[in-house]
Every structure is written in structure tokens, then in C-alpha cells.
Write a structure and sequence with these properties.
It is built from 16 helices and 22 strands. Bound molecules: flavin-adenine dinucleotide. The site of flavin-adenine dinucleotide has 36 residues, from helix 1, strand 2, strand 17, strand 21 and helix 16.
Length: about 475
């Protein structure tokens, strides 16, 4: 019998993970990985720049993650085994290259009435995980704190397992509008690049609904979770909340690329697919048709929809209906003496009510070790969720980001380095309708024995989710 022929379409993190898993499961199969662009990694890209190019006499290069910059670690050591990213890191032999956030900095700021204020100690994305820290902060008013305290005695709202509500509605109902407006909204938007009013809680952060169901009070559950983490860290757990790699996120996609290099076909896009009893025919952008026994589709939903149109029209239309948001990052390097702020945190987030042009800023040189020579501060700004983002050119985005940093951090000197990157329709927005849509698409695709969907369209946008989606797709198709 001749070797089975597999195709993975798209060499972003998810497609690379699928191809790598297929290689692990069926080393003798024929494997191809088509990538429309000239490089692998998709949104993951790291630029390394010698400091000498910026007039700094140092051997230490600048390591600039242009897109994703961190991986959320496992919830606790008990969840480590099932963490797809750490599992993959171990199989790739990359454990020694994993880095944790700098321990000589901590926490982050939030813009509060025009200035940077510390996010309350222990605040955990949507609610307080430390009541003393929350009480001491002035980001939320006394009335707001009193309202949030009522959460401790609030019973869980009964719900059917598939009922969803917006993240904003959940926070408003449990903690009040002020916690939403001043803390939960900017923190969630900093991650999803979208307003929590349009994000479904079950689709994005189901653990908070689980907390409500199991504990009644989400505050109590957050406090218990914070204690468990402190105990683990006290016991020397290896992974903190976020991890990255010594030379940036591209370490991961480069290592995956090395494992499947012979399968890689760069600048080859799939444009159409058809299937019959003997397999799947895929047509590329040069009009060539090739047959495969099974295909993994690993692109954003709106592109995957085009490919699946000839295979399952209903699934394709449901995929095409998933809304996507655009984003941009602007990275600057300044000489440290040009930055009046002490940079004593990992960055800041910006509530919508503050009416600014940016959503968040990561102080990369303070968050991660060895990202820049000691003479330089590396500051990245994130803009998204803005309808007119596409209408502003790179120069304007950089100017707006500089204006905001001048106002909030007092940085007025010209930067030594500026880099703007745009991410058009990059982030799928999981609204309250997503779970029903996701389950319907998954059910239809489950009927197809030779086509699998990877990527971030259905089961999570985070890096561990995207890896898991790629690996599950490979496991569905492999017969070895
Ligand atoms: C700005 C930004 C910051 C982020 N930050 C984080 C973070 O810090 N932590 C985190 O966990 N997540 C983060 N995410 C989310 C995460 O990066 C993504 O969910 C993930 O990288 C998606 O990987 P993917 O392989 O599914 O898709 P992609 O990276 O989009 O890869 C798809 C690939 O398919 C190729 N392709 C498309 N069409 C075709 C075709 N027809 N034929 C062949 N190839 C094709 C594309 O060129 C691309 O290389 C961020 C996302 C963005 C946009």
C-alpha cells in the first residue's frame, strides 16, 4: 500500500502544530504544508536588531515580538500536563529556552482619570482576588467598592449549560458598572482587542461562569485561586502566569518549522477544495490540482470558509459569519534617560472611558529579561477595536501612540526605533452566539473523515488553544 498523502494548509502556529503532530504520528506518510506567504509562523514574528544599529555600543540585541508576546501558563501545576503549549515545548526540547516574566518588576498600571494608577493588588481580570489590595486602591470609588463587595453574598444565577451572556453583562451583574468600566473592560480588551460588551463569557472565559456555579461568589473563588497559586510558587513551581522564549516567540514556530521543513511549500496558497470517495482535491493559486487522502485547514475562519465552500457549504457559511477585529502594534525603543517614568511594572491598560487612541502598552524590556541593552527601554503599544484603524496610516498610528505615551509617561524625546505592524481581520471575536455556532460547525466537520479544521476559529485564540486545535486536527486524520 502506498504512503498516505496529507496536506496542511497554512503554516501559522496551528498549521505547524498539525504538521508536526502528523509527522509524529505517521512518520512515513507523505506530508505537505502549503503556506501562502514567504515565511512560517503566521501572526507570530520576532525581529532581532543589533543595538549598534541604534548607535548603542552593546553586544545585546533588541528582541522585538511584533505580534503575540506571551503564553498564558497553566492554571495550576495540576493543569500542567494538559497544557498544549508546555507539552509541545517539552517534545521539541525547548524547555531550556522558556523564560518567565522578570521578578524585579511586578503588576501593571491602568489609566485612571488621565494618569497611570496601579491596578489593585491581586485583581484578577474581572474581579478582586485580594480584598485588602482592592480596598486600598483608588481606581474604583468608595461606592464602586461597596457595590463590588455585595458580590460576596450574591447567589449564582441559574443557567442552562449552553447559555451565554456577554463578559460585560456578567461583570456588571456581579461587581457593578464601575469595576467593569475601570478595570475589567480594559483588561479584557487588552487581551481580546475587543469590547467585553461583544464578547461571550462562555466562549472566552468560561472559568468565571464555573466559579459562579461552584462557589456562588466569584470573589471567594478568585481569592482561593490566588492562595493556591501563592502556595505553588512558594513550592517552586517552574512556570508563572506568563511565559515566553529567550529569543522571542518565534523560537517556537522556528523549531516547529525545522521539524517539518521538507514538507514546507512556501508561497503556495490553496484556493479551492473538492472531495469525493477517493480523497480531497486541492487547487492552488497557480491553478494546479493535487489529490490528498486528508487535509488540515489551518487559516483564519474567513479564509477557511472559502476553502470549505466546495466541501460543506453550511459549515463554510457559519465560519464566514464569525466576526473578526483588526489590530496594530507600535514598538518604540528609547534611551533610558529619555524615559522619565520609573518603568516599575509590565505596562498599562486603557479603559474606553478615558477616550484615548490606544488600548494597552507593554514595557517589553521590563516584562522580559534580556530584550534590550540596559541603555534602552523597549515599549510596545497595542491599538485595536477601533473602526477607523484601517483608515490611519502607519505614520499616524506611530504619532498617536507617541502622543499618548508623552501624555501618560512624560516621554517627549524622539525614539531610537519605531516599528508599526498591522493585523487586518486577525482576531476572531467570540460573541455570545459563538458557542452555538462553534458546536454546529464542529458537528458538521466531525462527519468528514478526511478534512479537519485547525486554527483559532472555534476553540480559543490563545497560543495553547491554537496548538491544541492543530494537534487535534492531526489526531483526527492520522491512521498510523
Ligand atoms: C497582534 C496580536 C497579538 C496577539 N498576542 C497574543 C499573545 O500574546 N498570546 C496569545 O496566546 N495569543 C496572542 N494572539 C493570538 C494568537 O497569536 C493567534 O490566535 C494565533 O497565532 C493564530 O495562529 P493560526 O495558526 O491559527 O493563524 P495565523 O497565524 O493567522 O496563520 C495562518 C497562516 O495561514 C496562511 N494562509 C492563509 N490563507 C492561506 C491559503 N489559502 N493557503 C496557504 N496558506 C494560507 C497565512 O499566511 C498564515 O501564515 C495575538 C494575536 C494578534 C493578532
Amino acid at each position: 500500500m502506498s504512503a498516505r498523502r496529507y496536506l496542511v494548509v497554512g503554516a501559522g502556529l496551528s498549521g505547524l502544530s498539525a504538521a508536526h503532530r502528523l509527522r509524529e504520528l505517521e512518520p512515513s506518510a507523505h506530508l505537505e504544508l502549503w503556506e501562502a506567504s514567504a515565511r512560517t509562523g503566521g501572526w507570530i514574528a520576532t525581529e532581532t536588531l543589533p543595538a549598534s544599529r541604534l548607535g548603542i555600543a552593546s553586544e545585546q540585541a533588541l528582541v522585538v515580538d511584533l505580534g503575540p508576546e506571551s503564553i498564558l501558563g497553566p492554571r495550576s501545576e495540576a493543569h500542567r500536563e494538559e497544557h498544549a503549549a508546555l507539552g509541545l515545548v517539552a517534545r521539541l526540547g525547548l524547555e531550556d529556552r522558556v523564560i518567565r516574566t522578570r521578578s524585579d518588576r511586578h503588576g501593571a498600571y491602568v489609566v485612571s482619570r488621565g494618569r497611570l494608577a496601579r491596578i489593585p493588588e491581586g485583581f484578577s481580570l474581572i474581579g478582586p482576588g485580594d480584598l485588602v489590595g482592592f480596598a486600598k486602591s483608588d481606581v474604583v470609588s468608595l461606592e464602586g467598592k461597596a457595590r463590588a463587595a455585595l458580590e460576596l453574598a450574591m447567589p449564582a444565577r441559574p443557567r442552562a449549560p449552553s447559555d451565554d451572556e456577554s463578559l460585560a453583562s456578567f461583570v456588571r451583574r456581579r461587581f457593578g458598572w464601575e469595576v467593569l468600566e475601570r478595570l475589567a473592560q480594559p483588561l479584557a480588551s487588552g487581551i481580546y482587542g475587543a469590547d467585553p460588551e461583544i464578547l461571550g463569557l462562555l466562549a472566552t472565559m468560561p472559568r468565571f461562569l464555573e466559579m459562579e456555579a461552584a462557589h456562588g461568589s466569584v470573589t471567594r473563588a478568585l481569592i482561593a485561586a490566588a492562595r493556591a497559586t501563592t502556595d505553588e510558587v512558594g513550592e517552586g513551581a517552574r512556570y508563572g502566569l506568563f511565559v515566553s522564549f529567550d529569543a522571542g516567540m518565534q523560537v517556537l514556530t522556528d523549531a516547529l518549522t525545522d521539524r517539518v521543513r521538507d514538507a514546507l511549500r512556501l508561497e503556495r496558497a490553496a484556493v479551492r477544495m473538492e472531495r469525493d470517495a477517493s480523497g480531497v482535491e486541492v487547487i492552488d493559486d497557480a491553478g494546479r490540482a493535487e489529490r490528498f487522502d486528508a487535509v488540515v485547514v489551518a487559516q483564519p475562519a474567513h479564509r477557511a470558509a472559502g476553502l470549505l465552500e466546495g466541501i460543506d457549504r453550511e459549515a463554510a457559511h457559519a465560519l464566514a459569519a464569525i466576526p473578526h477585529g483588526s489590530a496594530a502594534t507600535v514598538t518604540f525603543a528609547w534611551r533610558r534617560e529619555d524615559v522619565p517614568h520609573p518603568l516599575d511594572a509590565y505596562g498599562f491598560v486603557v479603559p474606553r472611558v478615558e477616550r484615548r487612541r490606544i488600548l494597552a502598552s507593554t514595557w517589553s524590556s521590563e516584562k522580559w529579561p534580556d530584550r534590550a541593552p540596559a541603555e534602552l527601554a523597549l515599549v510596545r503599544v497595542f491599538a485595536a477595536g477601533d473602526d477607523d484603524l484601517a483608515g490611519r496610516d502607519d505614520a499616524l498610528l506611530a504619532l498617536e501612540a507617541r502622543r499618548e505615551l508623552a501624555d501618560l509617561m512624560g516621554i517627549t524625546a524622539p525614539p531610537r526605533f519605531t516599528k508599526v505592524v498591522r493585523y487586518e481581520r486577525a482576531m476572531p471575536l467570540y460573541g455570545p452566539e459563538h458557542v452555538a455556532r462553534r458546536d454546529a460547525i464542529a458537528a458538521r466537520l466531525a462527519e468528514l473523515p478526511d478534512v479537519a479544521l485547525a486554527g483559532n476559529s472555534l476553540f480559543g485564540v490563545g497560543i495553547p488553544d491554537t496548538i491544541a486545535a492543530g494537534e487535534r486536527a492531526a489526531e483526527k486524520l492520522a491512521t498510523g
